[in-house]
Amino acid sequence: MLNATILGQVFVNGVSLSAIYILVALGFTLLFGIMRVVNFAHGEFAMLGAFALFYLMKTLEWHWAFALPVGVIGVAAASLVLEWLVFRWFYQRMFESMIGLLGLNMMMMFGAVQLWDVHERNIPTMSGDVLMMGDIIIPVDRLIVVIIALTALAGFYLFIRHTRAGLAMRAAAQDLETAETQGVDTRRTYKIAFFVAILLAALAGALWGQIYAVSPFLGERPLLMAFIVVILGGMGSIPGAALGGVLLGFTESFVGTFYGAAASAFLSFGVVILLLIVRPWGILGTPEN
Amino acid sequence: MHRKWSAALIGAAMVLGGAAAAHAQEVLKFGGIGPLSGGGTAWGLAAQRGMEIAVEEINAAGGFKAEGKTYKLELIMYDDLYTGAGGKAAAERLVNQDKVKFIIGPVGSPPALGVISVTNPAKVIALTNGYAPQILKNDTPDPYNFRIYPTNIEFGPPLIKWLKENAPEVKKVGLLAPNDAVGQSVAGALAEDYRKQGFEVVLDLFERGIKEFTPLILRMMAQKVDAFEFDGNSPGDAGLMLKQIRQAGFKGKVIQIGGPGSDEIIEIAGPAAEGFLSYGVFDWDTPAGKKLRPIYEKKYGKGIINQFMPAFYHTVFMLVDAIKRADSTDTTKVRAALDAMDGFDAGIYGPVKWTGKESYGVNRQLMFTYYLAEVKGGKLITKAKFVP
To answer: Which ipTM was obtained for this model?
Structure first.
């Protein structure tokens, strides 16, 4: 069954999967790296991003290029209320955050069920076209997702590396007390980090909903994927999230195609377990002191 | 002033209370069980809503008469978490605590098996759904359970026969189903049905929850399947598969024998749904469908309506009719009345029929007319009608 077309198709599919997994994992790892918060509600912000895009594109009939940034920024801005109500109490309290945010996760999910009912909805597609490269088919909507994801990744990298807020975040992540004594306003830094993390989650969710479907349960899968990616790459490591996303995306595409779904799931989780045993800080993470 | 108001209120309450007592009717409580949380929520809500609408309709018409009394209905609904233990716990609560004699639901096989393990010894009537043959075919000496919805044991072989006759180019079928109790039993049985009729079958099971089916689709295309089959999947997943199959460039037939939910599939797959062949049991364009849709939309809002909704709506009417025929709420008498309800027509499915003797040893499997429909221009067009 191995031929060039299938291999090409598997590669294309691997790229598009990786892009989404990276986006989902970036915000998750950022919250952990800086605030030591394990955001079990991460997937629910992805769900909100998807619903925002759904309403803007389907009900208000906006063009996606307009609806996507408005929806995603809107969700991130509105989520600052939850930051104030819930998240800020869990900063630097890893174990409490797990339980507390698992509760928030359930509340948001079943709140969404009450609000929007359970059936799956379809966001109008960004493009129904396909590109043909020889016999290899590239759906244009997937291509757009890959481009947006790469742009977001690059933008995020520039933000972390080349802005004062980014510098403050890195300082706070490395050594909180020293950063505070050097005048870093951690409350403000945390708020910005939270905003960026939720922005990325909502963007990932909107794109996820765009190529798959939207329902109150949308967040479950991205959360699981974020976990695997982040454990692979290293909790709190941003290059690690990128590497983990690529590894998971390509593993799923190749192993799923050649050995079936069960083998793919077995391998992904098997590698995670193995890694947790031999290198619990992940491929690019740093060991906790 | 304050005291005067209180006195007036108490007086009013007493008058109202007295008025209510004068019109008091007997209330017949019955149990409803379905998944109201987790992955099966869509089905559980559909079941609950169907029953709620039926109860409201029956009560608004003044209730019903049996044993010389006028009864109003009251539904007590519990979540089964879509598990065997959840179904058992819900049934125990209904039977022992709420003292109900009739239960409608649940939807899936694991909870249904849990429910009947409680209801049959207690001589409580259970009108369940669920695909597992063991729901009807078991060692219980004198069972009180019925199945209200057909399974692919009933409709699979006729639909496959139709495919063989009407799409002779299809020789090899690819089956994609979730790797859980539902997927394994449904897809396994369906694969067997296909093989019996001379088809080659490629079966792949995946973990429920994944949304990216392209690797599995490519795997099947590389094995040169001529058609894809989705039975055992939720409508949302089936819609995604359909979309991804077309995006992967597959041009052949795509069919779903079982697992109704075509509206949702069409919604998710969009233009990729064109040509999709689907089994269906309820036609929304019939007079019953046209009447039921606005009632549902007024109460629960517009949106996709799961096909279990009319099924559970129908079952409430069937149960009430059986109680009226038995002129009793004694479960043994009502069971006998239910057994004799061949030809009952509540205006939903047309005349229904009990079948199942051959497959399960008891005639407790409800059958009604079902369809094979094709999506054309985003709408389902009936291609074949199967009358039991």
So the answer is: 0.78
